[in-house]
Design goal:
- By secondary structure, this protein is of the alpha+beta class.
- Helices cover about 20% and strands about 35% of the residues.
- The protein has three domains: about 70 residues; about 160 residues, no CATH class; about 140 residues, no CATH class.
- The chain contains five helices and 40 strands.
- The strands form ten sheets. A five-stranded antiparallel sheet has the order 31-32-33-34-40, with no helix packed on it. It has a five-stranded antiparallel sheet with strand order 35-36-37-38-39.
- A hairpin with a 3-residue loop joins strand 3 and strand 4.
- Helix 1 packs across helix 5.
- The protein starts with a helix and ends with a helix.
């Protein structure tokens, strides 16, 4: 019993010291790498010891083993807006830290869009770092720490894709990752069965290019052809709060894709329910033919969460307020918390779909600052502020109930009232003082994803790893000082 108590005390102490150790680690790493000299505005650096390092996204700078410091040069194109991660010396050509076998460093040149050639063979070297298969956040942090203190360390949880290509007649087309050789199209170094002449990005609702693209007939994501025929109405309609999942919607058939995964055809057509501007709910939901669904990215997979069927067609009524023939609805975040021996923690996140009020009863009271921040509505019982301002620093919900009716007059004042406009911070003050409270309504559907909880072993390992890393760094610094003296 005493032994177990000691173990728990040690574990708690380590857990409490983790924030301080994290700060110490990043301070040490930043101080060490501040002395590095960037080479030609690239992803390559020269250390104070005149060694060459390559910067790997989210991992830090890694020693480029065997690089010849005297002949080392960065390969770039003058019009490129991004940092080059392709370089050469008298012996090799490099894609970040990887040697591109077979290329003649003397004759190698960049073509563009990530492609390069020496006239005999070609390569694609991605400028974007990707997560290794089986990526784990904790392991990634540990590897980054090891890299700071062990100069010869090579392993990273991120990599830059490189692919050897036999063609030497590549012509960059369209955008990053694309090239053609006659009618043969390449994407990220791989052949793609698509028409090079019809390439275009599918747009988001606000007109930005999405990750989905088409050749005018087929639709692709990350080089994978989707089970859908392109239409001009097709749009990326939403992302989740972390921007990890991208949803493509085809309104003619009601088809939906989440990161390229097609939703059930039996439940089509779908109607997406999502934030109009920047996402503030954790994820969107989708009203299908036979109920309400959401994409559970933790599995991943499509989950049915309700048998609700709208009265007629459901559509966006105003900003983040939705309507069918009878009622008005809205989305809202919530969290489940649990208390354990490690403290109070979020155990699950939820997005609810709620009925707000009768559509026939709702009337518009007025715009908020000319409609810039939203509008005020009322039914026979309550008043509501429905936001259309997408900086969620001030407004974390789409729909608020007006608890203090004096706020109605403040919100609906005309622009330049007494020489002053209403600002977002004024609305935030109404929320902070309780004049505006998150709306409540009748639950229609609830979607839920559990939050992965760190274990006591993770806390202990994390703490020990930091302590060992710092001791190693201090010992190394003292040894270097002795050698210098």
């Amino acid at each position: 019993m005493v032994k177990n108590k000691k173990i728990w005390i040690i574990a708690i102490v380590l857990a409490l010291t983790i924030p301080e150790l994290i700060l110490a680690f990043f301070y040490y790493a930043a101080a060490a790498q501040d002395k590095f000299e960037n080479i030609d505005k690239s992803n390559f650096y020269r250390s104070p010891e005149d060694e060459i390092y390559a910067d790997i996204a989210h991992s830090g700078r890694y020693l480029l083993k065997g690089a010849d410091k005297d002949s080392f040069r960065v390969l770039n194109l003058p019009h490129y807006y991004y940092y080059s991660n392709v370089a050469a010396d008298k012996n090799n050509v490099y894609c970040s830290t990887k040697t591109l076998q077979g290329l003649d460093p003397k004759s190698t040149r960049l073509l563009g869009n990530g492609y390069l050639t020496d006239g005999n063979i070609s390569y694609f070297c991605s400028p974007k770092g990707e997560k290794q298969p089986g990526f784990n956040e904790f392991t990634a942090v540990m590897k980054s720490i090891a890299n700071v203190f062990i100069k010869s360390y090579e392993d990273s949880s991120y990599f830059y894709k490189n692919v050897r290509i036999d063609s030497v007649n590549l012509e960059p087309v369209f955008d990053m990752g694309f090239a053609k050789d006659g009618s043969t199209l390449y994407y990220m170094g791989e052949k793609l069965d698509a028409d090079p002449k019809g390439l275009k990005f599918i747009k988001t609702l606000n007109g930005q290019k999405s990750d989905y693209f088409t050749d005018g007939r087929s639709v692709f994501l990350n080089g994978v052809k989707l089970d859908v025929i392109y239409t001009d109405e097709m749009r990326e309609v939403a992302t989740d709060l972390s921007h990890e999942t991208h949803y493509l919607f085809e309104p003619k058939t009601g088809a939906v894709f989440a990161n390229g995964h097609k939703f059930s055809e039996q439940a089509m057509p779908f109607t997406p329910i999502f934030n109009e501007g920047e996402p503030y709910t954790y994820w969107p939901i989708f009203v299908g033919k036979d109920g309400v669904y959401f994409w559970d990215k933790s599995k991943p997979g499509l989950e049915k969460i309700s048998n609700f069927k709208p009265k007629g067609k459901i559509y966006r009524f105003y900003s983040d307020l939705f309507a069918d023939d009878e009622s008005l609805y809205f989305l809202q975040n919530s969290e489940e918390w649990t208390r354990s021996r490690h403290g109070r923690q979020v155990s699950a996140r939820l997005v609810g779909f709620y009925r707000l009020t009768s559509k026939s009863e709702l009337r518009k009271i007025g715009d908020v600052n000319g409609g810039e921040y939203g509008a005020v509505f009322a039914d026979n019982n309550k008043s509501y502020f429905v936001g259309s301002y997408y900086d969620r620093f001030y407004m974390k919900e789409g729909v608020y109930e007006i608890a203090d009716l004096s706020a109605v007059e403040i919100l609906t004042r005309p622009p330049h009232f007494q020489g002053k406009n209403l600002e977002a911070k004024d609305i935030y003050e109404l929320i902070k003082t309780g004049a505006l409270v998150p709306a409540s309504g009748e639950e229609v559907a609830i979607s839920r994803i559990e939050v992965e909880k760190p274990t006591i072993i993770l806390y202990i390992t994390f703490g020990i790893a930091f302590i060992v890393a710092i001791i190693f760094g201090v010992t190394k610094a003292r040894s270097a000082k002795r050698d210098f003296i």
